[in-house]
Amino acid sequence: MMAVKAASLIEEDSRPPIIYLRSFSEDEKFAPQRGLALLRSKRAIRLQGLTPASYEEQVSFALKRFGPLIAIGNPKKGLPELGATRIYVNDDAWQQRVQELIATAGLIFMQAGKSDGFIWELQQVLMRAKPHQLILGLPFVGKGGEKTRQAHYDDFRSRSRSILPKDLPERLGEAQFVYFKEGWSPHLFIPNKSAPLPDYSERINSKPTLQIEALKALRSEFLLVSTPYWFRWMIIMTILALPALLLVLVVFIDHWLNG
């Protein structure tokens, strides 16, 4: 996939851009479901064969339909990651560029991180954007499963406590995202079919806000993240065993007909 110059993309698309903010160290983070990507997404197979889609790619699949998805690029990398279109700026200019992007954004997606740069960006979003413009992604993964996710979340929750007007919910559970209502009231979002969506009485022209539409798209893209691991592997093993079972059935039928 060739990277399209961000300036041209924004000029050609009249919709407000969607800004993707994250720590550079998160660029190679893989999506939580890893090995299931080849089963849950034909797009992942088409783009990467058997290689699982990155977290950013999945977010891009969900959000790019709503506007140009733009991110600040890491100048130390030769090739950009698949996903958001990169803007490259000098070290002494990136903060001003982030502020400009926030001011023009229709939606801001922030991939939770620990760096000082990310914390500064979160402060800027709180000062310059409205609550319904922000979605936080929580791609916490680890070998310890749910306990490790909760530990990573606790660390992020502690670091953000001095910045966010209201504390994040205490228990993460299976939530993958945080959305905000008036007064920066945070709400966890689990990407399953029964997950409630924000209910705003002040919908623009009786239409859902972009935040609601984005959450619907993210729910569709990350739906299987909430599927228990044992069930995912049962599906995989069943699919792998099907050829052998069919072969046994054919041999049995042939033996029965000719026996």
Protein described:
With 259 residues, the protein is α/β, with parallel strands linked by helices. The chain has one domain (6-227): Rossmann fold, CATH 3.40.50. Helices cover 42% and strands 12% of the residues. The chain is built from nine helices and seven strands; from the N terminus they run H-E-H-H-H-E-E-H-E-H-E-H-E-E-H-H. It has a seven-stranded mixed sheet, sandwiched between helices. A hairpin with a 3-residue loop joins strand 6 (177-181) and strand 7 (185-189). Residues 31-51 have low confidence and may be disordered.
**Strand elements, count:** 7
Order of SSEs, N→C?
HEHHHEEHEHEHEEHH
Mind telling me the C-alpha Rg? 21 Å
* CATH topology term: Rossmann fold
Strand portion, in percent?
5-15%
Which class best fits the helix and strand makeup?
alpha/beta
Strand order of the biggest β-sheet: 3-2-1-4-5-6-7
Return the average pLDDT rounded to an integer: 78
Output the number of helix runs.
Answer: 9
Query: Which class in CATH terms?
Result: Alpha Beta
Unreliable spans: 31-51
Gross CATH architecture:
3-Layer(aba) Sandwich
Overall form: elongated
Largest sheet: 7 strands, mixed
Number of domains: 1
Distance between the termini: 57 Å
Helix content: 40-55%
- Oligomeric state of the chains in view: single chain
